[in-house]
Specification:
The protein is mainly beta and about 110 residues long. It has one helix spanning about 35-40, and strands spanning about 5, 10, 15-20, 25-30, 50, 55, 70-75, 75-80, 90-95, 95. The chain has a single domain, classed as Ubiquitin-like (UB roll). It binds FE2/S2 (inorganic) cluster. FE2/S2 (inorganic) cluster binds near residues 60, 61, 64, 68 and 82. FE2/S2 (inorganic) cluster binds near residues 59 and 67.
C-alpha cells in the first residue's frame, strides 16, 4: 500500500523497482525507499522484539532517533531501517533483543 497522490506533495513519480528479502520473503521496493517504507508498503509492521518480554516494536519516530525500528541487515544488527535506503538484494531479518552478528561479519 502506497500513497500515489497526496494533496500537498502531489503525485509520486515511479522509480526503479528492486527486490529485497525480509525474513526470507522477497518483496519489491522502489529505489530511494527506506527499508521501513518498503516494509510498511508490503504490510510488515514488526522490526524487532524486545529482549526481556519479547514485545514487538516497529517504526515509531521515523527519523532515526528512537531505535524501535532496528533490524539485522546483511548480517549486521541494529540498523535503523527508517533512515537506511534499500539496495538490491538486501537481506533483512527481524531482530530479537540486541541482535547478533552473522559469522561473516564477526
Ligand atoms: S523509527 Fe525511530 S529510529 Fe527508526
Amino acid at each position: 500500500m502506497r500513497i500515489e497522490a497526496h494533496p500537498i506533495l502531489g503525485t509520486r513519480s515511479v522509480k526503479e523497482t528492486i527486490s529485497i528479502t525480509v525474513d526470507d520473503r522477497t518483496i519489491l521496493a522502489q529505489q530511494g525507499d527506506t527499508i521501513a517504507a518498503a516494509m510498511l508498503a508490503e504490510g510488515f509492521r514488526v522490526c524487532r522484539h524486545t529482549s526481556r518480554t519479547g514485545e514487538p516494536r516497529g517504526v515509531f519516530c521515523g527519523i532515526g532517533q528512537c531505535t524501535d525500528c532496528v533490524m539485522q541487515v546483511n548480517g549486521v544488527p541494529n540498523i535503523r531501517t527508517c533512515i537506511t535506503e534499500v539496495e538490491e538484494g538486501m537481506e533483512i531479518r527481524t531482530q530479537v533483543g540486541v541482535g547478533r552478528w552473522e559469522a561473516s561479519h564477526e
